[in-house]
Specification:
The protein has 91 residues and is mainly alpha-helical. The protein has one domain (4-89). The protein contains two helices and no strands.
Length: 91
């Protein structure tokens, strides 16, 4: 092998390594951003679900305290339905 080719191969190898490392770094950072966005969306969805649950449960509990008839069965059914929905959202 001629000694003139060694610096050319070294330069080409360094350029290739630099290009590949840039591509891999960009791919990894994009993947991390997408994962963080997905997690933020899941948390937001869960917060909305819990907020509506607390509001509805509070309303039902207040109605049960102020009325003669107890709405406890409705509250229990409501809790079970929200739990099933939360389990399906959680995956």
């Amino acid at each position: 092998m001629n000694t003139i080719y060694a610096p050319a191969f070294a330069a080409f190898g360094g350029s290739a390594f630099g290009a590949i490392s840039t591509i891999v770094t960009g791919w990894m950072s994009r993947r991390r951003r997408l994962r963080e966005r997905h997690q933020a969306h899941a948390v937001s969805k869960r917060e909305k679900l819990y907020r509506s649950f607390i509001e509805e449960a509070s309303r039902l509990y207040a109605d049960a305290l102020t009325s003669d008839k107890s709405e406890i069965p409705a509250l229990v059914n409501f809790v079970c339905a929200y739990r099933a929905h939360a389990d399906s959202v959680r995956g």
